[in-house]
Amino acid sequence: MRVSSALLVALPALALAEDQVPLVDKVKGWFNQAQSYVSTAIPAAATPVEAAASKVAEKAVANLTLENWRQTINSSASAAAAGPQEWMIYVTGGNKTCFGLCGNTTEAWNKSVPVLAAAPKSPNLGVIDCEIDNILCNTWAASPPSIVHIQIPAPLPDQSAPAPAVRFIPLNRVNTTALNITQLHTEKKFEQTEPYEGIFHPFNGLLVQFGVEVPVAYAFWAFSKMPSWLPMVAISMISRNFMSRRAQPAARPAGAAPAAQ
């Protein structure tokens, strides 16, 4: 009875570990390997989980901020000589920046992380929380929930660095699943989104070239904090001042005769 119970525990673990093997080979493999799971059924069942946790630990999700994102991304690129580096960055928020509607996409992202970390040529993973680091989101013009997909090309023979390809991929707040996110990498569905080449490009956009991306981001942040009634009041005061000036009679030159009545 104990052996049968151990086998029942072992077989699902083997099925998960060999999901890429044809069915006939699976069946043969299960019974050939079942003996090794009998005496240590419980530890063996926990092994895939421990392996996945170890893999995720190796591929940690970087918490990107305004202060560290350049160093974090650039260090990963310089450390890889084999080829281009891929980043998948989840942009999330809270009640103010995502209207409290990022819960589903955050759950889908969390479920996709172990799959992405275990995938062949797995991408680097990162998170930006616009509720905490709104200025960074404004410098990128990134809105939650979304995935920022970055491809950093390998250096050219002359050691010059080509411009990274950046894609802003919005996520449906209701229907996004972990499969939708993982397919961006595993099936290269990120290629369905055209690379962004506008002024908010994080690496070589016009604002970056002039070094004003952070001041502009603060200006957007200040505007977002402005009460909705304040612009209307300012416009009303300016228009009244303009109309009152136009209504005033023109000044009469010195020595000129008064106008005839």
UniProtKB/TrEMBL annotation:
Residues 1-17 form the signal peptide. Keywords: Signal. This is Uncharacterized protein.
